Amino acid sequence: MDAEYLAERALAARANAFAPFSKFKVGAALETANGKTYTGCNVENATYGLTVCAERVALWKAISEGERKFTRLAVATSSPHPAPPCGACRQLLWEFCGDLEIVLVSAEGRRETRSLASLFPEPFDRTFL
Ligand code: THU
After folding, report:
1. Pairing between strand 70-77 and 111-115?
2. Could you tell me if 116 and 99 are in contact, meaning their C-beta atoms sit under 8 angstroms apart?
3. The pLDDT of residue 18
4. How far is the CA of 59 from the centre of ligand 1 (A)?
5. Is residue 54 within 6 Å of ligand 1 at its C-beta?
6. CA 104 to centroid of ligand 1, rounded, Å
7. Domains defined along the chain, listed by start
8. CA-based, 20 to 30 A from 63: which of 39, 56, 71, 118?
9. What does the pLDDT read at residue 1?
């Protein structure tokens, strides 16, 4: 599977975003080491604070299906510039996936690639416990 395929899956997932409050639609596609893809979109609600990001929906779907090894993530947003995952998602992605390759896709379809380690330097994780 290539990065372009994953970006397309994230774009398709973005179409399902439930974002009536922010109107900011996000889709994510998480690739496993055995070549499967789990997608997610952001799901908002009237309390605002219980909103779940697209990245976490994709991650929880994968973890709940027994997946434990991940290689790459694509995130498609409705931002004019490729937008990185929020801090909470960076923490969880780091703990469950390690140093993922992350493909960011803007509203206009522009792609940029980052490593999670570059977006999230000096993470707190289980090695400190
Ligand atoms: N959002 C995500 O889904 N992923 C991110 O990494 C950034 C923010 C969602 C949450 C909320 O529904 C909307 O985007 C605006 O913050």
Report:
1. unpaired
2. yes
3. 98
4. 14
5. yes
6. 13
7. 3-120 (3.40.140.10)
8. 118
9. 76
Query: What's the rounded Cα separation, in Å, for the pair 60 and 113?
Result: 23
Q: What's the DSSP call for residue 85?
A: P
**pTM value surpassing 0.90:** yes
Name the closest-CA residue to atom 1, ligand 1: 53
Q: What's phi and psi for 30, nearest 5 deg?
A: -110, 125
Q: What is the pLDDT along the chain (129 residues), one digit of tens a residue?
A: 799 999 999 999 999 999 999 999 999 999 999 999 999 999 999 999 999 999 999 999 999 999 999 999 999 999 999 999 999 999 999 999 999 999 999 999 999 999 999 999 999 999 999
Q: Strands across the sheet with 37-41, in order? A: 37-41, 26-32, 70-77, 101-105, 111-115
